[in-house]
Specification:
A hairpin with a 5-residue loop joins β21 and β22. The radius of gyration is 75 Å and the shape is rod-shaped. By secondary structure, the chain is α+β, with helices and mostly antiparallel strands. The strands form six sheets. A five-stranded antiparallel beta sheet has the order 2-1-5-4-3, sandwiched between helices. It binds adenosine-5'-diphosphate. The site of adenosine-5'-diphosphate has 21 residues, from α17 and α18.
């Protein structure tokens, strides 16, 4: 079954809207999950890499400190080695005399042997003026300006420090620069006298090379001025300049060293290689003569750090990927049944009620699917029921509509907004001349009164107007029913005309009979002879007949609407009393009591005495007919304050059913009355008594009403203008 009318644009729109689909549940789960995982992975990689790099840096720093320590020790050892050589030379036998005698040959032999033994390449022996007597190695390569050597000058001047009379220095005047120690040759006779000076030295380059081997780090020596004096690096002059330090920088490092702190690690780049360096003091004979920088390549930190970063990034990346994959599987597990539910609900929305989610009823979503299926099943069942009901309703509506259409009664329905909502064929036929325009028709119908009789289009129609309400008492509109009474009405009129005519015609012979009777009466002898009695009877019956014909005529005038009364001054009390007198003989027979309640005064009115008597006669006649033996009839005549006279005729009779009460004043309307014991009382009558009474009272501009209770009695009240 298809409920295509239920196809919602929103469902289709949702299906086609990629933007909305982007925010589907699957993405809502996976995207934050992915972002968090990647974030954690990135942070993790970063932290671990930093830790690795940190530990590598620490290792390097420790290694630098260790190298610095080894370098310092190495310098100390070299100093000791040089001191040993100095001692051997200064205390060599014959040295003092050889210096005094300036026996350079002797001195050469001594120092050559000792220097070779002590592995010292450069040796110089000076006289007490500081003039060289014998030189070896670098000192032998030219005129070395010993007068510029602070150590030599200190020795000549016999200066002593905490460590004694030997002095050390880095000689930068030579090429290559030298690590040098100088000691005095003391006079054997006068210990205060300096006979000569012995200088032992080693190229600084060699010392640094040796230290490099021991400390496994590159070494660079800076003079106190900041100048780079020697280095194990092979440097271009340009690089030398850039590697040099300024005096304040040197001072700063020295300051740190003096405070027994380690110098700061420095970073340099030589030939595109990164190094980190640490400064240690270069001390000779306890004096800091410069700074020794130990350099270790730091590339391995970056390299290893980079490698570990890659490894960890890969590990974390893999972990993140597997977490995301697991997340995807979990999300899919959750989302797949939801998607199924969404698809099914969409198809159900589009009208396919046969769709079921059939999700396994394991979890909440399964249960949701289960409830959804039950709901859809019920919906399907109800829809089927609804369709059956709608079909039945349609059939019923069609049936009713054809009944209404076929009905001979004209039916027009006007809804609450005043629009014509239905009109059947009969009504169309009756109202044919005023069907168009519709608005005129509606106005015509709205001006009709219930119980009206209208003549239109050669039809005589009885109008009935009914307010139509729904079962829940809501106004639906107004139904105007038009009953075709043309035949009855015309027949009635014909009958009335015939009766009037006949009554009229009957009176002519009757008048003649009455005239002759009177004549006979005047010609016969008075006395109670049978003849006289017969003539009197004929006269009375003729009068009764004449009265009946007059009444018949009056009734036909009433139905034709031409009835009128002839008014004269009269006393209503007298009329009522005459009527009571007239019925008195019947009261005894019927075993009834009649009371006349009155004040004794006259009630003068302007009225038709004969016709009023006729009305009162009918009311009294009914009271007698419909009251069981033993009952009471009460007549009451009084004047009301408003100038009206009220005549009440009350009985304790069988009463009138409330459904009959609105109709008893209609012409020819009769109902057989029932006694409380169930016996039917159906006295003779034509159903015209109350009709006549009402017409007479109303012709006097009065009104007549009834109040009656079944089994208790009836009260007829007439109001007449005085
Ligand atoms: P009818 O000739 O039948 O009396 P009426 O027009 O006088 O005709 O009365 C109409 C109907 O009203 C009667 O058939 C009767 O059922 C009822 N009716 C009139 N008067 C009384 C009354 N006093 N008590 C009970 N029923 C009455």
């Amino acid at each position: 079954m298809a409920l295509s009318g239920f196809e919602t644009p929103t469902a289709t729109e949702w299906k086609n809207n990629w933007w909305q689909r982007l925010f589907n549940i699957r993405n809502k789960i996976i995207v934050p999950y992915l972002v968090i995982t990647l974030f954690v992975a990135a942070i993790g990689t970063y932290i671990v890499t930093r830790l690795v790099a940190g530990s590598l840096q620490e290792r390097l720093s420790n290694q630098l400190i260790e190298s610095g320590r080894v370098a310092t020790e190495s310098v100390v050892r070299r100093e000791a080695q040089h001191l040993e050589a100095l001692r051997l030379i200064t205390f060599a036998s014959g040295m003092e005399d050889a210096i005094l005698a300036e026996d350079t040959a002797f001195i050469d032999v001594v120092i050559s042997g000792l220097a070779a033994n002590a592995d010292i390449p450069d040796v110089a022996v000076l006289n007490q003026e500081g003039q060289p007597l014998a030189t070896l190695g670098s000192f032998a390569q030219g005129d070395f300006p010993f007068d510029q050597s602070a150590a030599v000058q200190a020795v000549i001047a016999s200066e002593q420090d905490d460590l004694g009379d030997k002095h050390g220095e880095i000689l930068t005047q030579t090429d290559p620069p030298l690590f040098a120690l100088a000691a005095p040759v003391i006079s054997s006779t006068d210990p205060a006298r300096v006979m000569g000076v012995v200088v032992v030295a080693t190229p600084l380059r060699d010392i640094l090379g040796q230290i490099k081997l021991e400390a496994l780090a590159d070494m660079t020596f800076y003079a106190s001025s900041g100048e780079l004096v020697s280095s194990t690096f092979v440097l271009s002059p340009n690089e030398r300049n850039t590697l040099s330090l300024s005096a304040p920088e040197i001072e700063e490092q020295l300051q740190l060293i003096r405070q027994d702190q380690e110098s700061e690690t420095v970073e340099i780049e030589i030939r595109q290689r990164d190094y980190q360096g640490l400064y240690v003091p270069f001390r000779v004979r306890g004096q800091t003569v410069g700074l020794l920088a130990t350099f270790l390549p730091s590339e391995f930190i970056v390299l290893e750090g980079g490698t570990s970063a890659r490894i960890f990034a890969a590990i974390f990346g893999l972990a993140a990927l597997s977490i995301v994959l697991i997340g995807f599987v979990i999300a899919s597990n959750i989302v797949t049944p939801i998607s199924r539910l969404v698809n099914v609900s969409q198809r159900v929305t589009e009208g396919d009620l046969t769709q079921r989610s059939t999700l396994p009823n394991q979890d909440e979503i399964g249960f949701l699917g289960f409830t959804f299926d039950i709901m859809t099943e019920r919906l399907e069942y109800r829809t089927q029921l609804l369709e059956i009901t709608i079909d039945a309703l349609k059939a019923e509506t069609a049936r009713l509509s054809s009944i209404l259409k076929a009905s001979k009664t004209g039916m027009i329905m006007i809804d609450t907004t005043g629009q014509l909502s239905f009109i059947n064929q009969a009504a169309r036929t009756f109202l044919e001349p005023i069907l168009r325009p519709t608005q005129r028709l509606i106005e015509y119908l709205q001006n009709l009164n219930p119980q009206d009789m209208i003549e239109i289009n050669n039809f005589i129609l009885a109008v009935e107007i009914t307010a139509v309400v729904s079962p829940d008492q809501e106004s639906v509109g107004t139904l105007v029913a038009l009953q075709d009474i043309t035949q009855q009405e015309l027949a009635g009129r014909l009958k009335d005309r015939f009766i009037a005519r006949v009554s009229h015609e009957l009176r002519t012979p009757l008048t003649a009979i009455k005239g002759y009777s009177d004549l006979v009466m005047s010609t016969i002898d008075f006395g109670k002879t049978p003849k006289t009695r017969h003539v009197v009877e004929i006269i009375q019956q003729t009068e009764l007949l004449d009265q009946m014909i007059v009444q018949l005529l009056a009734i036909s005038q009433m139905s034709a609407g031409t009835f009128s009364v002839r008014r004269r001054e009269m006393d209503l009390r007298a009329t009522v009393m005459q009527a009571i007198e007239g019925v008195k003989p019947r009261l005894d027979a019927a075993q009834l009591t009649l009371k006349f309640l009155e004040t004794g005064e006259d009630f003068a009115i302007h009225g038709d005495e004969q016709r009023l008597r006729w009305a009162v006669d009918h009311l009294l006649d009914n009271a007698i007919k419909y009251t069981l033996p033993g009952g009471t009839i009460t007549c009451h005549l009084c004047a009301l304050g408003n100038g009206e006279i009220e005549l009440i005729i009350q009985d304790t009779g069988v009463g009138i059913r409330s459904i009959d009460q609105p109709h008893i004043f209609d012409a020819y309307y009769r109902r057989e009355a029932t006694a409380p014991n169930g016996d039917v009382i159906d006295p003779r009558g034509l159903g015209l008594g109350l009709y006549v009474a009402q017409n007479v009272v109303e012709a006097h501009q009065g009104r007549i009403t009834v109040e009656s209770t079944l089994g208790e009695g009836s009260t007829f009240v007439c109001h007449l203008p005085a």
